[in-house]
Amino acid sequence: MLVSADAGGMENVETRRRWRGPLLAIASSAAIGGILAIAVGLPAIWRLSRPYAVTLALLVVIESIGLVWALARVRRLPIGMMVVGAAGIAALWALSEECRILPAPDPFLPLNSTVGIGGWLCAGLQLLVVATTVIRLVLPMRTPGRSARLIGLMATAPLLTVVVLLGILSVVTAGSGFRGPSIPATTRPVTMLPAGRRSTVEYCRPGGVPLPMDLYLPRVAATSDPAPVALYVHGGGLVIGDRRTSGLGAQLAGHDGALFIGLQRRLNASGFVVASIDYRLTPGSDWRAPLSDAKCAVRFLRAHADELGVDPSRIGVWGSSAGGQLASLLGLVGPSAGFDRGQYADRSSAVQAVVDMFGPPDVARYGDAGPFVRMILSVSLGDSPRVRRAMSPASYVRTGAPPFLILQGRRDSAVLFDLSVGFSHALRAAGGSATMVAVDGAGHGLDAPGQRPSPSELTDQVVRFFRTSLG
Predict the structure, then answer these.
(1) Which H helix or E strand runs over 454?
(2) For the chain, which domains are there?
């Protein structure tokens, strides 16, 4: 008994010595960030898949117990529990989101609903817990002197700061600024939607993931005829943003720069039904997903035209930045390109009018763009020329395209002004109608103080364009 106690005591002393100092702070900070990110998304994960939610909840509980226990009393068992929980979460992420060998739906998609790397951040923190712990326990232990400990603390402080910041970022992005993932708990049936109010419906379910659409119906129908539809696709580089009108996702999507609130109200007043969608973000989803989802939204509107009281032959679309890119692709890309996937396959995804607000027309020609723009393109689409061409509206310019209205700020440093001018020329050269509006004083957004035309004048112009194009 005495020998066993001495051996156990020596083991505990050795374990505590190995964990002394910044090691425990780094591992526990990473664990806290990863645990909280999963916890924020757990209600939405529960709505997607109860087996995945239960599995993640169990792993979070194991990791949390190990973390609290290790902080209170350093022993091998709680450290092992923390590593097991973290490794299990990281493995589930790798198998579902990266390898895609587990059954759908992807349980980490709610963490990606506002920022497409939310799942990556969470998994990265969990991997850091595992790597930090295993490496430290395996390395030979030496008792450092006071100077060595001070140098170690100074060297580790930047890493600890980065870990803490990544943990905060992981939690904030997973919860869309603590509002919860952008997957609604409830949606209305398509029938009997209240006039003059916003209603959220599920428009498609790719891979078992419900995608929300906000529908804004006019208070009073302008005529007894079915209404035209204006579909809004938010921006954010295909990586960030959501359809919601407030919170982190709204700021990242740039709704103000797309004149969304003013256009929604003016279009409703003119008898239009306005629809606004979320779509799956990259790189948490395949690069084809944003356009495939937008096409599914158009097909949904046609499939439910009678219930919604809309005219399936009068659907227009607008969007800004990456949303403008997707809007242009909706106007140009036919079914042969392979993006028409999922539900309502018997319906067309064609639109009858496009408003492109500073959307990049050719993402294959951004080699000389700024470092931030190049980084966003690399994260969202990768560096394959084939993929870049496939997501470039300029690749699909054709005869018979719908009318385009292109709005572009002259000071835009993210989407080059000359590319938009060339895109409008190409559309007209193919026999189409393309109106190019250069906005003096505007950058990457159409709400700059003192710009000409002003935001209200641009709103008027867009409404006139939709009324003329869609009747």
Answers:
(1) none
(2) 8-174 (no CATH), 198-470 (3.40.50.1820)
Q: How far is 330 from 350, CA to CA, in rounded Å?
A: 7
- Residues 311 and 305: their CA atoms lie apart, in Å, by 6
Neighbours of 184 (CB within 10 A): 18
Rounded to two decimals, the pTM is 0.90
Show pLDDT as tens, one digit a residue, over the chain (471 residues): 334 444 445 455 555 555 555 777 888 899 999 999 999 999 889 988 999 999 999 999 999 999 999 888 877 888 889 999 999 999 999 999 888 899 989 999 999 999 999 999 999 999 999 998 887 776 655 555 556 556 555 666 777 788 888 888 888 888 775 666 777 777 888 877 888 889 999 999 998 889 999 999 998 766 678 999 999 999 999 999 999 998 889 999 999 999 999 999 999 999 999 999 999 999 999 999 999 999 999 999 999 999 999 999 999 999 999 999 999 999 999 999 999 999 999 999 999 999 999 999 999 888 667 788 889 999 999 999 999 999 999 999 999 999 999 999 999 999 989 999 999 999 999 999 999 999 999 999 999 999 999 999 999 999 999 999 997
Residue 317's alpha-carbon distances to 287, 297, 342, in angstroms, are 21, 11, 20
